[in-house]
């Protein structure tokens, strides 16, 4: 029994072992986007210094308190997980410090449905995006949502809210 315990402990240590940390500068977009992992979820859009295109980040950034409506420039530690869980990332990101936090004005597009999941929903007169973010939707736009695929949004007065401007 003791041998089994030590073998399990040894296997757990191997599974969670990590390669040394690498410090990078990362930019995080002012909104999250729906993405397909194990299920439909909201992902960060990120890019590292020198990278041209945004890419999805499915996991959390350890120690980072994200607010919609701000573009962040972060100093982060990236650690490669040698034997990640089957459904987990092989990289862990931990915030070192926020280098810049800039409020964003203007509009951006988000899908209104994905993989059969309706992302902009009305429950008792309250609209939410992904059942998390409050959205202001005019009565005129509400009548057009059943045929729309994409919404054009802007951040509300409170950065944790969105306003639907138009649909496509």
What's the arrangement of secondary structure elements?
Blueprint: H1 2-16, E1 22-28, E2 33-36, E3 40-48, E4 55-57, E5 70-80, E6 91-103, E7 107-111, E8 113-114, E9 117-118, E10 120-123, E11 126-129, E12 133-136, H2 139-142, E13 150-155, E14 162-167
Parallel strand pairs: 12-14
Antiparallel strand pairs: 1-3, 1-5, 2-3, 3-4, 5-6, 7-13, 8-9, 10-11, 11-12, 13-14
Helix content: 10-25%
Number of separate structural domains? 2
Structural class: mainly beta
| Average pLDDT figure | 87
Number of helices: 2
| Largest sheet: number of strands, sense, barrel closure | 6 strands, antiparallel
Strand percentage lies at: over 45%
Give a verbal description of the structure.
The N terminus is likely disordered. The N and C termini lie far apart (63 Å). This protein is mainly beta and 168 residues long. 11% of the residues lie in helices and 48% in strands. Strands 1, 2, 3, 4, 5 and 6 form a 6-stranded antiparallel β-sheet that branches. It has a 6-stranded mixed β-sheet with strand order 7-13-14-12-11-10, with no helix packed on it. It is built from 2 helices and 14 strands. It is globular and about 55 Å long. It has 2 domains: 82 residues; 61 residues, no CATH class.
Main features:
6-stranded antiparallel beta sheet; 48% strand; mainly beta; 14 strands; globular; 6-stranded mixed beta sheet; 2 helices; 2 domains
Quickly describe the structure.
The protein contains 2 helices and 14 strands; from the N terminus they run H-E-E-E-E-E-E-E-E-E-E-E-E-H-E-E. It has 168 residues and is mostly beta strands.
């Amino acid at each position: 029994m003791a041998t089994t315990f030590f073998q399990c402990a040894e296997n757990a240590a191997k599974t969670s072992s990590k390669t040394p940390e690498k410090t990078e500068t990362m930019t995080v977009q002012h909104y999250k986007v729906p993405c397909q992992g194990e299920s439909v979820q909201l992902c960060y859009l990120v890019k590292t210094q020198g990278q041209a295109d945004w890419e999805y980040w499915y996991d959390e950034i350890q120690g980072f308190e994200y607010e919609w409506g701000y573009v962040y420039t972060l100093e982060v530690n990236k650690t490669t997980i040698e034997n990640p869980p089957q459904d987990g990332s092989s990289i862990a990101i931990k915030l070192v410090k926020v280098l810049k936090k800039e409020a964003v004005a203007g509009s951006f597009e988000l899908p209104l449905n994905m993989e059969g999941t309706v992302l902009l929903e009305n429950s008792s007169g309250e609209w939410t995006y992904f059942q998390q973010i409050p959205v202001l939707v005019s009565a005129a736009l509400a009548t057009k949502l059943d045929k729309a695929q994409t919404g054009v949004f802007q951040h509300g007065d409170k950065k944790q809210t969105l306003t639907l401007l138009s649909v496509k």
